[in-house]
């Protein structure tokens, strides 16, 4: 090859063209001549290229020939060697043919075995696949059987989970289209069946829970009532300790047994069917539909529960009605607290607003129909227990309490009317005799219970009380009225209702008790003892009004000291005091009327007698005996100020009667003997007045107003008419000192009637003729001067 290059140069030197040289170079270098060929054809001149290629081919053949000539011997040797190789190849071919024959003989049997093996492998694969497919079908069918078993046992949750497993893991893998189609068709049917079954069970639970709501509500309200009773008992112990000033008050205030009244543990009712139904509907993918179904059905139940029967009195059905409502909302509270997002708070609020508006309307309607305070109070107490119970579960019960508050006046009107009848009966049936108490227990019940005692020392028994049986009877009625009022006002809208209670307490004392007493006083048929006992009774009722106020404050939890101030007393106390004064006036009117019957001066006195009287008239003894009886009885019954008023009134009436008799038109004239007789009578009355004034102890209380001082007008008139110089009446100094209570006109009228007895038959022969003449002249002068003055 190394020698070929000089020869190419020789060829070139021997006259080859340049193109042949370029082409030969490209071919010799192994370069691609494609572009030259493409160019030649594109130019439409392939012939020169073909010619050039032929030239190159001839040149190559020449080179080959030269090369063969150069290596001829080596070539011969190589051909010989090649022939030897051919012989070996034939031998090898013969061996290979022989081996191939033997291999074919052996391989045919193996090939048959291989085909059998491959067929076996194919069968095995098919069997394996069949087994796998069968297992899937069997497992799917087993799950279907298990699902049916769960359904028959009512375990719907497990049934749905099983169906879900079939759908997710087996349904796509089932190779049998028929089985797959059957399962696909049955799954919705089974789900619908399960939903119907669950709804059926849930409907049964709805019926059951509605029938159980009454018991649930009654139990919850009963627990609230027990807690309230314990609280009231604790407060009662505190009040008693406060009244007795025991040192254990502070301890009592902190020893209330607080029981953890977990109502959830007491109020046992099963919500499992609800939970299960909701859970299954959630699995079924329709939780909203079940929520709506529950809400609609429970709302229908509520509307049915809120209907009351008008064929049965409300007072007989209110507990069942209210307990049913309470149980309903206790169940709803448990549902909203334990069922997750199943029930919305807005839905419960809507149901509660529906219920509360209906309850308020029913209560207002029924309260308007009621005519018994006891019935109204029973309903009110149960309603407040309902409110307290449901408030613990977070319900707003304000509208219900407002309805009770609106019926407050209606209740008190009924209670007031009931107490009025009792008070009228107590006063009408009263014997107006001092109450006889024989035992200490009776004394405590009738006297100490109402702070009516006149002394802190326990009296000896038998004890004669200064009041009649009407007083403790009325006190018991008022106390029961206070208790009834507190019972209604308690646990209502206003926790501090003492001011309201105070108003109602004043109302019964003023509008009922005081009016009945005034009607009794205005009755003209009452006697002195009755009038006196009524006046005494009013004094003790006035005293009891302080007890009523303290008792009301204690029931309201108000400290007693806050109502013991004078400015905190009841307005009724002032009214009773006025009525007591009216009773005193009635008593005085009766006494004065009786005194007028005894005295009858125009009939019992000879106003123109010619005989000098030797002593008082007989009628005056009856007057004194009557006054003694009246004053003695009054001293036993009436307080000292009333005793003083009675004495003063009677004595002053006697004085006025004497003066009025002298002024009377029925007395045309009188003489000195009549004046002397009246003077004797007046002295008897004066002596009685002094004796009674001192013996009763009034002289120690009323030091400047003795009974005698209220006879002063009659005394000054008698002194003037008995005076030897009556004309001194016109002397301002003497008149101010001796006749300051006498009126000019009255004196003038009386003096005109005065006719001296000197004109009598034996008057001129009497030793006192001269004195009578001087007195007559003085009297005439007085008459004359009084005429001038008038």
TrEMBL record:
<dbReference type="GO" id="GO:0090522">
    <property type="term" value="P:vesicle tethering involved in exocytosis"/>
</dbReference>
<dbReference type="InterPro" id="IPR007225">
    <property type="entry name" value="EXOC6/Sec15"/>
</dbReference>
<protein>
    <recommendedName>
        <fullName>Exocyst complex component</fullName>
    </recommendedName>
</protein>
<dbReference type="GO" id="GO:0005829">
    <property type="term" value="C:cytosol"/>
</dbReference>
<dbReference type="GO" id="GO:0060321">
    <property type="term" value="P:acceptance of pollen"/>
</dbReference>
<comment type="function">
    <text>Component of the exocyst complex involved in the docking of exocytic vesicles with fusion sites on the plasma membrane during regulated or polarized secretion. Involved in polarized cell growth and organ morphogenesis. During cytokinesis, involved in cell plate initiation, cell plate maturation and formation of new primary cell wall.</text>
</comment>
<feature type="domain" description="Exocyst complex component EXOC6/Sec15 N-terminal">
    <location>
        <begin position="52"/>
        <end position="221"/>
    </location>
</feature>
<dbReference type="InterPro" id="IPR048359">
    <property type="entry name" value="EXOC6_Sec15_N"/>
</dbReference>
<comment type="similarity">
    <text>Belongs to the SEC15 family.</text>
</comment>
<dbReference type="Pfam" id="PF20651">
    <property type="entry name" value="EXOC6_Sec15_N"/>
</dbReference>
<keyword id="KW-0268">Exocytosis</keyword>
<dbReference type="GO" id="GO:0000145">
    <property type="term" value="C:exocyst"/>
</dbReference>
<dbReference type="GO" id="GO:0006893">
    <property type="term" value="P:Golgi to plasma membrane transport"/>
</dbReference>
<keyword id="KW-0963">Cytoplasm</keyword>
<dbReference type="InterPro" id="IPR046361">
    <property type="entry name" value="EXOC6/Sec15_C"/>
</dbReference>
<dbReference type="GO" id="GO:0009846">
    <property type="term" value="P:pollen germination"/>
</dbReference>
<dbReference type="GO" id="GO:0006886">
    <property type="term" value="P:intracellular protein transport"/>
</dbReference>
<dbReference type="Pfam" id="PF04091">
    <property type="entry name" value="Sec15_C"/>
</dbReference>
<feature type="domain" description="Exocyst complex subunit EXOC6/Sec15 C-terminal">
    <location>
        <begin position="401"/>
        <end position="753"/>
    </location>
</feature>
<dbReference type="GO" id="GO:0016020">
    <property type="term" value="C:membrane"/>
</dbReference>
<keyword id="KW-0813">Transport</keyword>
<dbReference type="GO" id="GO:0009860">
    <property type="term" value="P:pollen tube growth"/>
</dbReference>
